[in-house]
Amino acid sequence: MMDLKESCGSQGSQESSSLRPTSWQAFAHSSTLHGLRFVFPYGQPSARRLLWAAALLTCLGLLALESAERFAYFLSYPHVTSVDAVVSSSLVFPAVTICNLNAYRFSRLTRNDLYHAGELLALLDVHLTIPQPHLAEPDVLAFLQEKANFTAYRPKAFSMKEFIERVGHDLKEMMLYCRYQGQDCSHNDFKPREGDWQAGRLEGRNGGGELSLDVNVKASCEEAADTRSGAVSRLADCMMRPE
């Protein structure tokens, strides 16, 4: 009687252990990889399991092959350069914008200009005197002392438009030569116009146009003072010297 019970117990334990899923089966059934749970099914192996295993291995092989091919293509650093050249027989004459370091020419200032616009140009103070003359260079100081002597001076009418046209830059003096599409041009081909110097738009390249300007800038701009007291040296020496 005892032997029969022991044999039945051992047989039942063997059946329960055979029905318990392995770790691979548990992983396959919890994985999101499509088809993996059919490769490791519960129960006895079948032909379906072999078909799913072959399909899964084939897909993984194709994935590895395509990935290796793309990686090798990346390491070859391929590049494609496409350039289209369009030749135009005629071009519209371009607009030329000149941004001067100085707005006015220091050598063209008159006594009447200093009287009306000296404070505006930061060359004189509110009392029409030179602020801190020791900061100005000798030639600049001598010029200002001569022009800013308003003893018994009777000021004349002042026009800002006339002042800009007279003291501002003259394109005829600035232009050395001009050539556009193989033909010579001059200052007469340009029409000066006052615009917004704080904003502008530039397009394209020279387009066959060449323009040279004779600009004479003193090399002492770095010595200019940044404070209001040094405005005489800075404006006269750096901002108004190019002629």
TrEMBL record:
Alphabetically ordered keywords of this record: Ion channel, Ion transport, Membrane, Sodium, Sodium channel, Sodium transport, Transmembrane, Transmembrane helix, Transport
Pfam families per UniProt: ASC
Membrane topology per record: Multi-pass membrane protein
A single cellular component GO annotation: plasma membrane
Location in the cell: Membrane
GO molecular function: ligand-gated sodium channel activity
InterPro entries: ENaC
Main location: membrane
Family: Belongs to the amiloride-sensitive sodium channel (TC 1.A.6) family.
Protein name: Acid-sensing ion channel 2-like
Annotated organism of origin: Stegastes partitus (bicolor damselfish)
